[in-house]
Amino acid sequence: MKKIFLTAAVLTAAASVSVYSEKLTIKNTIGSDLDTLGEYDLYSHTKQKVYSASGDTISENDSLAFGDELQAEFESDSIEIKGRLEFLWTDNEEAYSDLIFIPSGYVYFKPSQYFSVAAGNNFYKRFSIPSAYLAAADDTTKYGRLLTDSLGHEEYFGTDSFSVFSNGFALGATSEWNWGDYNQFNLILAAGSTMYPGKNEFESAYDFGADFNVTEFMDFGFTVHNFTAEDYKMGFFAGLTSIDNLILNAAFYYNFTTSDYLPETCVIGNDDEDNDIYKFKKQSTKYAVGLSGGYNFENLGFSIYADVISGLNDEYIGTIKYYDSNGNLIDTKTATISRGSTIVKYKNGKAKRNDKFTSGAIPFYHQLRLSKTISENLELELNFKLRTMFGDTDSTWTTLYPKVTVALPSDAGSISTGIRFDWNNAQYDGLSSVSIPLTWSYKFKKKF
């Protein structure tokens, strides 16, 4: 009932401005493998090691998931409204909740070419730099977005909270300039702020960036996110746009923390009795480079795309925590940490061992996507993904995902499914997961 009510509210709000709109688009996706909740497939069978003092054991788990993603978008020359309602039920033991519900969206107002404003709790990929696009992943990381809404604060996103503000709230402004004999030069400047829930009160992060484009030649961009913090993040991007059907982009990242691309690796901690505890932590890297490219052979109905992101050394930006004699946290400092070192807590000014990496290593990500159009109604796709740590072969995660998409007759949308195989050397030696994603997506468009 709550979902029906909120859906009606989104459509009513959008209809109130439809007199100014030129196009209405409603898209609905039913099933699993949704945009935000994509880690949940319709059916999954997973295995992983469970570390304990008595020895390692293997845990096996079967889980189901089913959801719905309803999205409405209204566009005109001066205003754009986008709202999304995501619902997911799962019996996955590692999920935040059996029932996950996320309302999100934004309003974008452009009174003139030179100035526009946006507000919402999720801008999606609306303000992306073209040369930051990862072709194989079909994605743009938040480093490549001029306005963002959660970078560095992912722990507050995708939770089981029903509050819109669990996703934070973002404000942004952009300015666009065109010049040249044929307006072939384009410059976009952007700045924004995100308010997100901290432990006791809302906190803020501030971003800015720019994108410069020469039509049918090159694209350049940069972003700086959360620039007032010690652990700020930066991205620099360049891409070639002069050849049809070719994608060729390059990137340099500072403080890359996006866990969708980098692996987890094992660290050894200590309990109160100084016993070793093995645990897996998501990785980041202080400096990284990225490359993305591919080509669409239209006459053959075939395309191939590849992405690479690699750290440049074994350093990352982390925190050192200071505790008093009673174990209470009294200070936290941001520092550059070597992955081959021991990470410590400080108690009464004296170092106390906390975490130690099993080895010094450099994070690495690679994805390959092949696509073949068989007919107007049938497309085959093969995805291969590798996440690993150079210097730590036990922290290797590999995914193979053959996929088929079938277009239904009478404009009834399309159905996508496949089988996702995961090999996880970090927590299981061999095939660790087999899952089946399944989605039915359909779209309605109306021009006014």
Topology diagram in text:
Blueprint: H1 2-15, E1 23-31, E2 43-50, E3 57-75, E4 79-90, E5 99-112, E6 115-120, E7 133-134, E8 139-140, E9 169-179, E10 185-197, E11 202-214, E12 218-225, E13 233-240, E14 246-256, E15 264-270, E16 276-282, E17 285-297, E18 302-311, E19 315-323, E20 329-338, E21 342-347, E22 350-357, E23 362-375, E24 378-390, E25 392-407, E26 414-418, E27 420-424, E28 431-436, E29 438-447
Parallel strand pairs: 19-21
Antiparallel strand pairs: 1-3, 1-29, 2-3, 2-28, 3-4, 4-5, 5-6, 6-9, 7-8, 9-10, 10-11, 11-12, 12-13, 13-14, 14-17, 15-16, 15-22, 17-18, 18-23, 19-20, 21-22, 23-24, 24-25, 25-26, 25-27, 26-29, 27-28
Structure report:
The chain is built from one helix and 29 strands. Mean pLDDT is 83; it is low at 1-20 and 151-164. It has 448 residues and is mostly beta strands. It has one helix at 2-15; strands at residues 23-31, 43-50, 57-75, 79-90, 99-112, 115-120, 133-134, 139-140, 169-179, 185-197, 202-214, 218-225, 233-240, 246-256, 264-270, 276-282, 285-297, 302-311, 315-323, 329-338, 342-347, 350-357, 362-375, 378-390, 392-407, 414-418, 420-424, 431-436, 438-447. It is 3% helix and 61% strand. The protein is globular, with a radius of gyration of 23 Å. The protein has a 21-stranded antiparallel β-sheet that branches.
